Amino acid sequence: MFLLRHPLKIYLRGSGSLVDSPRRRVAFVVCGVYGVVALAGITGCIGLAGPRPLAPFVILSPFAGVYLFYDTKKQSRKLIAELAGPFGLAGVATGIALAGGWSWGPAVALWVVVMARTIPSIFYVRARLRLESGRPLDRGFVFVIHLLCALVVIVLIRWGMAPAMTLAAFGLLWVRALHGLSRFRRPSKAVRIGFQEIAYGLAYVVWVAIGYRVGL
């Protein structure tokens, strides 16, 4: 369903003209293929784990709808779209946990742990791009967002709903933000910043996964 987004966007944006028609027809076929694969996956999921793992997708579907609305209008870079997309997509973590037999509390906590990384990253990248283009920015606001998300992580750890290693992983994001928004940073283009953020996100996920695995 994630891969379905791009061909669906091409199909919905098409004007129906002779120039666009072949491209739209191909996009329509690809949408059909991805749709069949997604339906098969959903059917298999229900057969193995029941409908319970699909509940997070239903609950969070409005966020995905908001993102798709802006995306089809070529406005996916708006803040509301950048926030809504991850809010919906992060439900995958909760769904996987529920399929694995987790109770709702820890499964929802896992969603919060994912969002505690995603939300600061969105504001950091936006601030970093403004900095690289010479536009004014509020560094303090970015650090406040990081602090608030770190406090949420601490609460989850205190409640026994997240591993303590999550906080150490969050420290990596702090270091990244402090350096990336400082005068000591290396000027970078948007593509490089994006790939760096993917690497930081992967490191965060791996570190948190290890924490869950070893119980630390």
Topology, element by element:
Elements lengths: L4 H9 L7 H29 L5 H18 L6 H11 L1 H9 L4 H29 L6 H20 L6 H16 L9 H25 L2
Helix pairs in contact: 1-2, 3-4, 3-5, 4-6, 5-6, 6-7, 6-8, 6-9, 7-8, 8-9
SSE order, one letter for each helix or strand: HHHHHHHHH
Question: What ranges have pLDDT less than 50 throughout 5 or more consecutive residues?
Answer: none
The N- and C-terminal alpha carbons lie at a distance of: 34 Å
Number of helices: 9
Number of individual domains:
2
Query: How much of the sequence is in beta strands?
Result: under 5%
- Derived from helix and strand composition plus strand pairing, the structural class reads mainly alpha
What is the average per-residue confidence, as pLDDT, rounded to a whole number? 90
Biggest β-sheet: count, sense, barrel?
Answer: none
Helix content range = over 70%
Number of strands: 0
Précis, in short:
The chain is mainly alpha-helical. It has helices at residues 5-13, 21-49, 55-72, 79-89, 91-99, 104-132, 139-158, 165-180, 190-214.
Q: What features would you describe in this structure?
A:
α6 runs parallel beside α8. The protein has nine helices and no strands. The protein is flat. By secondary structure, the chain is mainly α. The model has no long low-confidence stretch (mean pLDDT about 90). The protein folds into two domains: about 50 residues; about 160 residues, no CATH class.
